[in-house]
Amino acid sequence: MVLKGIYEIALHYGYAYDSDSERYLILKLIATSMSKGPVWETENQEVDKILLSPPAADEGRMKQQIEDTARLLAMDMLVLKFIQGLPLVGVVGGAFNPVYYRKILHYARLKYYKRYLKDKLRKAASI
To answer: What is 33-98 written as a DSSP string?
Structure first.
């Protein structure tokens, strides 16, 4: 569901999501939105750099980003999924799924909007 939401955001702003560089950006967006503190600040700056000039397709970089994103999601979601398995308490754990979904999509929406505006400014400056 998260990927579907990000794909819809990308298409809304006019960006295709099927290139390797765009897939890398999407993974980076997910991972950054789940980060906290100084790690978030560093990752957020890196996302901003990627928005200005996407890196060339690199299989090693993509594989590393897949692992990093999976690890971040697993760490946050593992406890919640365990809690969901417990009777009565599981309802509380299940309530956090939409919270993470909204958090990731909100961050992705902000970054795609920023990218869209920067692209418009670049085009306007070249006229």
So the answer is: HH--HHHHHHHHHHHHHHHHSPPPP-HHHHHHHHHHHHHHHHHHHHHHHHHHTSTTHHHHHHTHHH
